[in-house]
Each structure stands twice: as structure tokens, then as C-alpha cells.
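Predict the assembly for these two chains.
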Amino acid sequence: MILTPLNAVLLGVVLLLVVGFYGLLITRNLIKIVLVLQILVKAVVIALVLGGKASGNLGLGQSLAATVIVADTVVAVVALALAVQVRRRVGTLDLAKLSSLRG
Amino acid sequence: MEVLYYTLLGLGASFCAYRAMISKHLLPSTLYLAGVSALVTVTLYLLGAHEVAVIELSVGAGLVTVLLVYALSVVGEDVIDRTSIIPKPLAFLIVAGIGGLVIWMAYPLAIQPDANGEVLLANVLWKHRALDVWVQIALIFSGVMGVLGLLSEKVNPQGQETQAHEIHASSEEHGIAMNCQAIQIEQELPV
């Protein structure tokens, strides 16, 4: 495997994706899930810019990356607001306990 | 040399992400996430995406970190249960499959870059992707509403209604008692 600069960036993207997906699968705290989603989106942002650079259209990659950053920030804000409200009303942020609630 | 920089940045960002994931407390996790964002910013800058690097640094390392810290200050520090919902070996297998799939799909693109003439971000964003700008405006509006939800005080409509009834009832009882006392005083007073 030839380690070119783009390959090195791809390696970082894959590592971030692996850590993010693993964290998403094993995490139970609502705020930590938001945090892990941020890690995943950072990997996606690098991948978009990398794809734009590799295909010779860096402007398109940057444009899509900016849109993803804005969307991800809004998702984080809304998810945090929901987590805060859940914590105030139910008293826990644990997914397993929230899933067992009835009524 | 460039390969070394990218490799170190990728490994550093992955290490910070791993520490953010396994940390027992949420505040160190947030700070590690800011570290990931800073390293991602340097990577983006080296790739030539200067505008996105600035956005990532200001939004990812700044705004999101502040929001996370504020949310933690509101909800307090919970004890994090480390047991996962699905078995960890199964999660590891799924993640390994995803990583292999990404490498299999993206590796051919990364070894044969197609270096055409580059187009400026402003041209792409304002001419070809104008709809994205409108979507971003709508998303920012949604984000503002989310911030309002995050900053809102504790609201319990039933509790407020109950409190209002209690206050009204107690004031009525208090008023009746005051009237009775006034009548008694009037009766006791010599005319």
C-alpha cells in the first residue's frame, strides 16, 4: 500500500469513523452520544474535502463540508436542548433507563 | 514530509476521539472533542480548504464546546454506566466491517487523484449550490430555536396550574378569615 498524502488523510478519516461508530454503538449517555456524533461528522467533513481535492473540485467539497458543519451544529444544539429537557423531566440521561420508561 | 504531517494529525485526532469516547466524565470528553476539532482544522488547512478550516475552528472548537459545557453545567455530572447496550465484540465487528468498506470504496480515489482545474468556493457556493445557502439559513433559524430550548427555564404547566390554584384557594381562605376577624372586631367594639 503506497502511503501518499491523500492516503494518509484517508487513514485518519477511517480511524475517526471507526472510533465514532464504535462509540455510537456502546455509549448510553445522551450527551455523550451528541459528542460522538460530532466526531463522526468531523470525519465526514475531512472526507468531503478529501474527495473534492482528489476529484479536482475542491470548491464543491468545501461547499458541501460547510453545509454539513452547519447542519451538524444545529443537530447538536437541538439534541442538547432535548437532552437537557429529558434530564429535567425524567431525571436521567441513560438510554437504557429511558427505554424502559412507560406511559 | 507531508505524509508524516497528515499521519500524525490523523493519529492525534483519533487518539483524542478515543479519549473523548472512553472518558468517565463528560467535561474532559468535551475538551478532547475540542482537541479533535483543532487537529481536524489543521488537516483541512493543509488540504487547501482554508474557508472550511476557519468555519470548523470557530464552530467546532468554539461554539459546540461552549454549548456542551453549558449543557453540562445545567444538567450536572451524571455517573456514566460503562456497560454497553450491545456486546462490545459485536460492536467491534460491525465497526471493523464499516472501516474495511470505507477503505475499499475510497482507496482507488485516493491513489489516483484527478487534478483538474480547481474552482473557487465562492463560485460553487453562490452559483451552483445556492439552494444550500437557503437551507443553511433555515437550519440556523432552527438552531436559534434550539438554543432557546436549551436556555429555557424549568417549565411544568401542571405544577404551575396547581400552584396557582393553591395560591388562589389560600388567598380566598385568608380573605374569608380576615372578613370573619373584622366582623368579630366590629361586634366586640363598643358603639
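Residues 1 and 7 of chain A are 9 Å apart (CA to CA). Chain A touches chain B through 78 residues (CB under 8 Å).
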